[in-house]
Amino acid sequence: MDKQTIGVAESIESQYRVNHVASGLPRWLIEAAFVCYLLQAVINWGPLMQWMDDHSPLASAIIQTFGALVMYFGLMRGMKPLYRPMTLAWWIVIALNIAGFVTSAIPVIMYTVGLPVAVSLMLVYLPFGCAIAYNYRGRLRQVGVWMALYILISSIVPVLWFLLGAPDSGIINHLMEISTIGIIVIYACVQRRVLVN
Questions:
Q1: Per-residue model confidence as pLDDT tens digits over 6-58
Q2: How many Å apart are CA 42 and CA 55, to the nearest integer?
Q3: How many CA atoms, within 13 angstroms, populate the side-chain half-sphere of residue 1?
Q4: Rounded to a whole number, what is the distance in angstroms from the first to the last CA of the chain?
Q5: pTM for this one?
Q6: Residue partners of 145: CB distance under 8 A and separation at least 6
């Protein structure tokens, strides 16, 4: 191959390989979002989650939503100059997370609107994560992969487990809880790596 062909191939590859996006967000805000994700992982431990839902649903809703909203907004802004920015999909994810915040913060409407919002999130996260993973390489691909795994492990698997009538206690339940906590931490780390250069 001549140098020109190699140059064209490298230029095409550089469009797909994205390790960092310039979100324009201040570093402290990204770090605050990361800390919120870590707190979200901590309060996903069963007894603590139940206590938070019973005694402080607003604080729980803020912790569960703030980190994701900041990171998603940063990723959306940072992806705008890329060849496939997926802005509409990011806005849908952001809107659904805001809807999730409202349903979590107001327990009265949780039982009427909570399930449709949760199902909508599942239906959007999985294909959207796959689309990011398919269209990009580098760290941005990891965001897509872990977005799909995040929704599978933290939402779809527990719902299926519940629908199958599985017991509320036991080793499998503890493993699911540990995997849910772990996936939140990993998902937060891969997003942070793309947003912080």
A1: 554 455 566 688 999 999 999 999 999 999 999 999 888 777 777 777 778 88
A2: 16
A3: 8
A4: 34
A5: 0.85
A6: 129, 133
d(CA 91, CA 82): 16
Residue 8 is predicted with a pLDDT of 46
In this predicted structure, what is the pLDDT of residue 140? 95
**Other residues' Cβ atoms within 10 Å of the Cβ of residue 81:** 9
How is the chain classified by DSSP, letter by letter? Answer: --HHHHHHHHHHHHHHB-S-------HHHHHHHHHHHHHHHHHTSHHHHHHHHHH-HHHHHHHHHHHHHHHHHHHHHHHTTSS---HHHHHHHHHHHHHHHHHHH-HHHHHHHHHHHHHHHHHHHHHHHHHHHHH-BTHHHHHHHHHHHHHIIIIIHHHHHHHTT--SSSHHHHHHHHHHHHHHHHHHHHHHHHH--
Q: What is the pLDDT of residues 128-140, one digit of tens each?
A: 999 999 999 999 9
